[in-house]
Amino acid sequence: MAQELKVIADFYDFMVWLIRHTEKFPRHHRYSLGLAMENRLQTILSLLLRAKYSQAKAEPLNQANLELEVLRFQLRLAKDLQVLPVKSHGFAANNMNAIGAQVGGWLKSKN
């Protein structure tokens, strides 16, 4: 298997971690907020892969940045609704910041 871009590998690992947490949400949040978060994760992964294989990388990377920002607010909402522990939210926020910095760096390198 070819070496994956670090941002994609890091995002995939974060995606697995977060899905394992959304599976533990109470039923009424699992099928609303949890599902919305999982769908957003898949969208971000798709955008990162599109950027990897596309000549025009700016558009999918800008869209990925926007989706990451929405996911940040969804994570905050999960914490405020007390379905995601504060410690887990801190871990997620740190990972999201690192991934966002990688996406931003990738975008700057292509402009």
Q: How many DSSP E strands?
A: 0
State the CATH class.
Mainly Alpha
**β content, as a range?**
under 5%
Roughly what percent helix? over 70%
Mean pLDDT: 95
Enumerate the spans where pLDDT stays under 50 for 5 or more consecutive residues.
none
**Count of helical segments?**
4
What's the N-to-C terminus distance? Answer: 29 Å
Question: Order of helices and strands, N to C?
Answer: HHHH
What is the CATH architecture term? Answer: Up-down Bundle
Structural class: mainly alpha
Radius of gyration, taken over Cα atoms and rounded to an integer in Å: 14 Å
Give the number of domains.
Answer: 1
Largest sheet: none
CATH fold naming = de novo design (two linked rop proteins)
Structure description:
83% of the residues lie in helices and 0% in strands. It is mainly α. The protein has a single domain (11-110), classed as de novo design (two linked rop proteins) (Up-down Bundle). The longest helix has 27 residues, at 27-53. The radius of gyration is 14 Å and the shape is elongated. 21% of the residues are buried.
